[in-house]
Specification:
By secondary structure, the chain is α/β, with parallel strands linked by helices. The strands form two sheets. A six-stranded parallel beta sheet has the order 3-2-1-7-8-9, with helices on both faces. Helix 1 crosses helix 11. The chain starts with a helix and ends with a helix. The chain binds 2'-O-acetyl adenosine-5-diphosphoribose (OAD). The site of 2'-O-acetyl adenosine-5-diphosphoribose (OAD) has 26 residues, from helix 2 and helix 11.
Length: about 250
């Protein structure tokens, strides 16, 4: 990790008017939550998304889909936020304005202390009625009942309150994300492979209108080439180092 790069970035964040953090499953990897596309441990290397994460899969086999999400909920409930999550919460407290857009459904940013989180792909700990016209949201998702459990309002099946392949991003989340991307002067893309749209387009969109684009990821991705600053490595190490550099910058009166 290049010390000068980290210090320059800390100074830029301190001066930033509006910073966007865009996170993906890599941020939770150090909490023991599987990413999606890692060749060995990623969920999509072991399971087929078309069997588990589409509306058609749920219609075909609701019990299988519900139980798979229940298994993921249990691993999320056991997990703890890591230093990367905590550093992002610290940035929210310290910087002029922060918007945190996460593709993660695990709620670990909130548990680490981030208070304003745009949940782009929903939250696995919530469930909602599978009938759109009912609209009931149930939190926490019920356990130890039939799988899937019935909606307490209308009796239809409950489903996880997450975005499946082929589904639209919740409109409020999309609007908040697009507004932030149009307004920010710095955007950090952290722990995401930048392969899933529309989330993947947000960093490029901010960069195209002049925002300074930072990528934190041990691997390169489709946006690495256009990033103004690349910090290759795990977010649980890099982000706390950035907070420390910010403390030092503040201490120097810079
Ligand atoms: P991916 O699994 O596609 O990418 C995870 C990224 O995290 C990879 O680029 C890794 O190199 C990186 N990574 C791994 N460990 C890391 C660490 N310790 N620190 C920083 N980065 C690390 O996951 P996402 O990009 O989040 O969608 O996937 C996007 C969407 O695809 C998910 O939200 C999910 C999935 O299908 C839905 O469920 C709708």
């Amino acid at each position: 990790m290049n010390r000068d790069v980290i210090y320059d970035l800390a100074a830029r964040l301190t001066a930033s008017r509006h910073t966007v953090f865009l996170t993906g499953s890599g941020v939770s990897a150090e909490s023991g939550i599987a990413t999606f596309r890692d060749a060995r441990s990623g969920l999509w290397s072991r399971y087929r998304p078309e069997d588990l994460a589409t509306p058609a899969a749920f219609r075909r086999n609701p019990a299988l889909v519900w139980d798979w999400y229940q298994w993921r909920r249990e691993s999320v409930a056991r997990a703890q936020p890591n230093p990367g999550h905590r550093a992002i919460a610290e940035f929210e407290r310290r910087l002029a304005r922060v918007t945190l857009i996460t593709q993660n459904v695990d709620g670990l940013h909130q548990r680490a202390g981030s208070s304003r989180v745009v949940e782009f792909h929903g939250n696995i700990m919530r469930s909602r009625c599978s009938l759109e016209q009912c609209g009931a949201v149930v939190e926490p998702a019920p356990v130890d009942t039939t799988s899937p459990p019935p909606c307490p309002r209308c009796g239809a099946w409950l489903r996880p309150d997450v975005v499946w392949f082929g589904e639209a991003i919740p409109s409020a989340a999309l609007e908040m994300a697009l507004a932030a991307v149009e307004d920010c002067d710095v955007i950090l893309s952290i722990g995401t492979s930048s392969q899933v749209q529309p989330a993947a387009g947000l960093a490029a969109q901010a960069s195209a209108r002049g925002a300074f684009l930072v990528e934190v990821n041990p691997e390169s991705t489709p946006i690495t080439r256009r990033a103004d600053c690349v910090l290759p490595g795990p977010s649980g190490r890099i982000l706390p180092a950035l907070v420390e550099a910010m403390n030092a910058v503040a201490g120097n009166g810079d």
